[in-house]
Amino acid sequence: MKPSNVKDQEHLETMKSKSIKGEFKLLDNSYHLQKWLRKIKTIRRMGPVHIIKEYKLSVHCYYTGMLFQDVAKLNKISITSKEIYWVFRHDLLEVLTGDLLYPAKHTNDITSDAWSLIEETIVKDYPEFAAFTDTHAKNEIFHTEQSYTLFKACDLFELWLFCREEMKLGNKDEQVLEIVYNCQRWIPSIADKCKATYIIGRIESEWI
């Protein structure tokens, strides 16, 4: 992606010049990546759904990352620092696409393939996002199928936790209830595949 204005261009050229001189080691992609990371806090999760509390993409990424670390420790699942880094930034592409609910992305194989195609198309124009697609994660980031499946379980588990909090606040929106029910159907089987027994036990203890 090119800088948005002359000032940005001049700043980038200055930084690149200093990098060549050894004053900074800053690549074009990392410069733009940090700009996009700052936008994570502006993206609203669950856009079409009525919610009581604010739910930003930055909050979801942060808590998913913490769950990934904590559940791995509790259930003795091997994870790497590379995986942890990625999980804390896993939805970065949504600063461009906005949040799209999981059922919409993965209604069937057709919608899943379509979403993958959207990701691939975005990466062509925005190379700084290349490391944040699911395809890249599966092929280059996660060292085992277990750690990748743990991430998927934590991603949905964090959503379930938020929606349960909404219900406790009195939110009876049908879409919130539907998300909770769907998560309760999907998460246990995903968590079972990676032996994340903590997640299974937590959901069973608050099953509705």
Blueprint of the fold:
Blueprint: H1 6-20, H2 28-39, H3 57-74, H4 81-87, H5 94-97, H6 102-105, H7 109-125, H8 134-141, H9 145-168, H10 174-193, H11 197-205
Helix pairs in contact: 3-9, 9-10, 10-11
- Percent of residues in beta strands? under 5%
Q: What is the C-alpha radius of gyration, as a whole number of Å?
A: 19 Å
Q: Considering the protein shown, what is the CATH homologous superfamily of the largest domain?
A: Hypothetical protein af1432
Instruction: Decide which structural class fits the backbone.
Output: mainly alpha
Summarize the amount of helix as a percent range: 55-70%
What keyword list fits this structure?
208 residues, mainly alpha, Hypothetical protein af1432, 11 helices, 0% strand
Description:
The protein is mainly α and 208 residues long. The protein folds into two domains: 1-42, no CATH class; 44-205, Hypothetical protein af1432, CATH 1.10.3210.10. The chain has helices at 6-20, 28-39, 57-74, 81-87, 94-97, 102-105, 109-125, 134-141, 145-168, 174-193, 197-205. The longest helix has 24 residues, at 145-168. The radius of gyration is 19 Å and the shape is globular.
Question: How is this structure best summarized?
Answer:
By secondary structure, the chain is mainly alpha-helical.
